[in-house]
Amino acid sequence: MVKSEERLKDIEICMHYGEVPNNYNGAVIPPTFSNTLFVYPTFEELGKAVSNEQRHFVYTRGTNPTVHIAEQKLAELERGEACKCFASGMAAISAALLNSLKSGDHVLCISNVYFSSMDFLTYMEKFHVSHSVIYSTDIADIEQALLPATKVIYLECPTDHNFRLVDLKALASLAKSRGIRTIIDNTWATPLFQKPLTHGIDIVVHSTSKYLGGHSDLMGGAVISSKQIISQLFTDEFILFGGIMPPQEASQLLRSLRTLPIRMATHEANALKVAKFLESHSAVEAVHHPGLPSHPDYELGQRQLTGYSGLLSFSLKVATYKTVKKVINKAKVFQIGVSWGSFESLIMSPNYGNNAEQLKKEHTSTGLIRISVGQGDVDELIQDLKQALA
Ligand SMILES: *Cc1c(COP(=O)(O)O)cnc(C)c1O
Questions:
Q1: Which residues of 83-96 are buried (b: 16+ CB within 10 A; e: fewer)?
Q2: pLDDT < 50 positions in the chain
Q3: For residue 352, how far is its CA from the centre of ligand 1 (angstroms)?
């Protein structure tokens, strides 16, 4: 399914791309440049650097050599022209949205997106930016939901909670014909499994706090796009808001990227086996994993994705808070907690027992349980779910 040349290229990017070993006295990994500023031999040279700060190291709130390596790797993995790394996924997402919007504009979200991204759009109402959600992944329905003021289509693919896929090529082509910018949160697939820019999407955002970090020990975000968009984002939302990825965090991210391909292979294999087990269980109503042939978007996934990550959900036949709570509390290997994309396996539900109305609005079953399948032994993980569901 993966073109092997592309796969080999990605492995090389994760390991070595953007690094210049001869510059670091032969050190096998680049050092962490924790300095805040860079000095120049003459004032004229400083002046020249300041006038083109994106291309020169002047001050770490703008550019830093360690962060720059991470940015080069992420841009190349997404087959994009440029990248800026941020302090968190939300710093990246808010910067990308602010860069794309002005007072009076409207944002269309495709089905469920990360709750803080949605909350950020609600916050934007005070600047007269409105938003709406189309609870469908069908391109004709999406077209129907566009307003004259729509300037951005914002999505995750797969969508949050229900893991439906959107045809990115068709979406990008629709948006381009209307002069609308498309922004996708590609955190779930990672650039290894989905490359939205190659389908015509304008901007990719990431939370590097999930798979890209992969060890539950770093927070960060990234925006990847054309040189033109990143250049404007650099002088505006990046430099001015200052939500940068610190060099120490970038160094951790480089550490994590080196093993991304092997980590993702394990997440993929484990999660597919877990999904197949869940599908066969009598207490389970449905399993939401686009790699299952029974998934409504399986064929689109086969064309658009080159792999599946480890986050999925399933819904219980008895869709009450009481049963959801019981299953989650019985799990032992799956730990109870938010976030995902790391070595540990996690279990939770969007049903907190007090938000049934909200879940209905979001087309989410009250029996939905979300699991992040980690790096553990898959038989042990399946055994744990089996005893929890018993
Ligand atoms: C976690 C997450 C974010 C937010 O990232 P932070 O690094 O926590 O700010 C955004 N999008 C998705 C899909 C996420 O899972």
A1: bbbbbbbbbbbbbb
A2: 1
A3: 20
Dihedral sign for Cα atoms in the order 166, 167, 172, 177: negative
Tens digit of each residue's pLDDT (9 = 90 or more) over 303-333: 999 999 999 999 999 999 999 999 999 999 9
3-state DSSP assignment of residue 204: strand
* This model's pTM is above 0.85: yes
Pocket test of ligand 1: the residue of 97, 111, 116, 370 to mutate, having most ligand atoms within 8 Å of its CB, is 116
Are 30 and 18 in contact by the 8 Å Cβ rule? The answer is no
Closest residue to atom 8 of ligand 1, CA basis: 89
Nearest atom (ligand 1) to Cα of 113: 13
Distance CA 214, CA 256 (A): 7
Pocket of ligand 1 (CB under 6 A): 88-90, 114, 116, 156, 185, 187, 207, 209-210, 219, 221
Give Cα separations from 21 to 68, 260, 283 (angstroms).
Answer: 15, 21, 55
Q: Which two tokens stand for residue 48?
A: 């020249």
Query: What are the phi and psi torsion angles at 373 (to 5°)?
Result: -85, 120
CA-CA distance, 346 to 329, in Å (whole number)? Answer: 12
What DSSP designation does 246 have? P
- Give, to the nearest 10 degrees, the angle between helix 260-279 and helix 247-258: 70
